[in-house]
Amino acid sequence: MSMTPGQDSALKARFGPAALITGASDGIGRAFAGRLAEQGFDLILVARREAALQDLALDLGERFGVRVTVVALDLSQAGAVSDLLTRPETAQIGLVVAAAGYGSIGTFLQQDLAQEAGMVDLNCRSVVELVHGTGRRMADRGRGGIIVFSSLVGFSGAPLSATYAATKGFVQSFAEGIAPELRQRGVDVLSVAPGPVGTGFAARAGMQMGRSASPDTVARAALSALGRRGTVRPGGLAKLLGWSLAMLPRQGRVRVLGAIMKGMTARDAASRG
User: Fold this and answer.
1) What are phi and psi of 213, to 5 degrees?
2) What is the CATH number of domain 10-272?
3) Scanning 19, 148, 227, 241, which has the fewest C-beta atoms within 10 Å of its C-beta?
4) pLDDT in tens, 200-230
């Protein structure tokens, strides 16, 4: 849907006036920022890279006439979410997109422990803190929307990406558990479980993705599903892989995902060699 700058949308009427997006400087978070600005939301953009956020804020503000607030924070750090939610701009949040996260690939014992623990903090703890803080405010108002991110690998263990898959399994279970509770208070919860997505996430994790969905495909599918479904798998490949894996017993899924991850690491080693 294309809209003129400043034009309100049904999405904003239901979940506005402001949206908070974490991980907004790149990839999926950035795609959500563009989509929501187009639909008239004021935005609070959160990520570590302030310069990238400022550039994005300037662009979206000029194109769509919305108010954009930039908050440079590392949400993996203790107290970061609490600091974020004390800002006066967050009082009007009606929609949260918790897109911040990262992964790793390779055998667990070869990974840097601080990076693995930081992944748990960012992918899990910060999501719980953010949903708790914003969810209470939305529930008190009787309306709101929360989008969190699981993954295709979040439905079983994934050798060579064990910590990442576990964090996404946590998010999936968390979303499924809180959705019925918050629905009774007028708040919709959606878990987005994409397969490979063409973002900077893959480069940080050391993955060679091959065929992948675009960040905009993920954003469009999620916003369309919010309030209608509990989990969405954006893109044809995610749907195909999700259906195929669901037909297998859990241990079979683990073996298949291990083979997929092994293929990614093999392509990565070949590209470096």
Assistant:
1) -80, 160
2) 3.40.50.720
3) 227
4) 544 444 444 455 678 999 999 999 999 999 9
pLDDT in tens, 28-85: 999 999 999 999 999 999 999 999 999 999 999 999 999 999 999 999 999 999 999 9
Q: Tokens standing for 198?
A: 């063409």
CB under 8 Å to 61, separation ≥6 — which residues?
Answer: 67, 68
The bridge status of strand 93-98 relative to strand 18-22 is parallel
Amino acid code (one letter) for 22: T
Main-chain phi, psi angles of 246, to 5 degrees? -65, -25
Question: Which CA distances in Å does 48 have to 73, 148, 188, 231?
Answer: 5, 19, 27, 28
Question: Which residues, other chains included, contact 112 with Cβ-Cβ below 8 Å and sequence gap of 6+?
Answer: none
Q: In what order do the strands lie in the sheet with 231-232?
A: 68-72, 42-47, 18-22, 93-98, 144-149, 187-192, 231-232
Distance CA 158, CA 190 (A): 23
Determine the Cα angle at 47 with ends 72 and 214, to 5°: 155
- For the chain, percent helix, then strand, then coil, each to nearest 5? 55, 15, 30
Report in angstroms the alpha-carbon separations of 196 from 28, 57, 124, 133, 153.
12, 27, 20, 30, 10
Mean pLDDT of the chain: 88
Identify the three-state secondary structure at position 47. strand
Q: Are 150 and 172 in contact (CB under 8 A)?
A: yes
If we measure between CA atoms, which residue out of 214, 231, 209 comes closest to residue 222?
Answer: 231
- The tokens describing 265, both together, are 């690491």
pLDDT score of 44? 98
One-letter identity of residue 268: D
What tokens appear for 3 in the block?
């809209």
d(CA 197, CA 200): 9
Residue 165 buriedness (CB in 10 A; 0-12 / 13-18 / 19+): buried
